Amino acid sequence: MFRSMGLLLPLEAAAGAALVLFAVWRRGRRGATNGSLDVPERIHDALVRARLPDGAATAIATEAAVLYFALFAWKRKPFAPPGGRAFSYHRRNAYAALLYAVVGIAVVEMAAVDLIVRASHVTAANVLLVVDALAAIWLLGFARAVQLRPILLTSDALLIRNGLAARVDVPLAHATIEFGRVRAPAKGTPRYLRAAMGQPNALIALREPATLRRAYGGSRLIDRIGLVLDDPKGFETAWKAFVLETPDAVTHM
Q1: Secondary structure (3-state) at 188
Q2: Model confidence pLDDT, tens digit, residues 177-222
Q3: pLDDT at 6
Q4: Element (H, E) at 142
Q5: Over the stretch 95-144, which tens digit does the pLDDT of each residue have?
Q6: What b-and-e string marks burial along 34-73, b requiring 16 or more CB atoms within 10 Å of the CB?
Q7: CA distance 146 to 163
Q8: Is the dihedral of CA 232, 234, 240, 244 positive or negative?
Q9: Using alpha carbons only, what angle is made at residue 74 by residues 155 and 100, rounded to the nearest 5 degrees?
Q10: Which of 34-38, 107-111, 242-246 has the weakest average pLDDT?
């Protein structure tokens, strides 16, 4: 039997996230989303339709998605909507490898702390074990999301994702892209987003500012985006093909 309420609260949160996932899965089975939205967006939309405030819906959707990606998405392929193209951003810069290394360190630290503390204080060891396990699951879910939530190019928009950390949707008609050796602004430049770690190999300039949405709520306007793509040539080819169908979009070499 648990002897600390500190152990019950995380379990209740996990159970709540599981219930949200189950409800969204059943809604998806009925064809409500038609495959056009990824899991976090589906959960968020379901919560908003249930009249939850947008900020709360965003935070809960993120936590539920972390659990989903960490525990239930191991056979899943990277998401791409019908007619869209997916482009990864985690191999060339070793982004995913770094995140998995952090997960491994967290697991080793969890085992070491549990071994040391349990010898003298079982209750404290139980609390620390649950907290550390949840932290490891969170890190694992984030790492999996980086692999399974690529940048998406559709017929009318560029959907930029950094795992679960942030997302921004850019209409093709608002974007000018420079390919090749780009001179990206320094990190921290106002209204600039570097979409992943590493040196950008594509630079987007926006005719109108877009809204960057963060994992747990909050947003800011951006008008330049540096992409760190695993396949910049493939992205350039796909971009030009989509631009032919979107005359207002512009490409710079």
Answers
A1: coil
A2: 999 888 888 878 999 999 999 999 999 999 999 999 999 888 999 9
A3: 45
A4: helix 122-148
A5: 999 999 999 999 999 999 999 999 899 999 888 888 888 889 999 999 99
A6: eeebbbbbbbbbbbeeeebeeeebbbbbbbbbbbbbbeeb
A7: 4
A8: negative
A9: 95
A10: 242-246
What pTM, to 2 d.p., does this model score? 0.83
The answer to whether 145 and 69 are in contact (CB under 8 A) is yes
Cα–Cα nearest to 156, from 172, 143, 142: 172
DSSP result, 59-101? HHHHHHHHHHHHHT-TTPPPP--TT-EEE--SSTT-HHHHHHH
**Which of helix, strand or coil describes residue 152?**
strand
Mean pLDDT of the chain: 85
- pLDDT tens by residue, 55-81: 888 888 888 899 899 988 999 999 999
Token duo for residue 213 = 């949405």
Q: Which residues of 97-117 are buried (b: 16+ CB within 10 A; e: fewer)?
A: eebbeebeebbeebeebbeeb
φ and ψ of 208, to 5 deg: -130, 140
Rounded Cα gap, residues 200 and 227, in angstroms? 5
DSSP 3-state of 16: helix
What are 176's strand-pairing partners? Answer: 205, 250
C-alpha distances in angstroms, 180 versus 62, 161, 199, 203, 241? 34, 21, 11, 9, 17
The secondary element (H helix, E strand) that includes residue 118 is helix 95-118
Give dist(CA 169, CA 152) in Å, integer.
Answer: 9
Element (H, E) at 159: strand 157-162
Contact (Cβ atoms closer than 8 angstroms) between residue 148 and residue 76 = yes
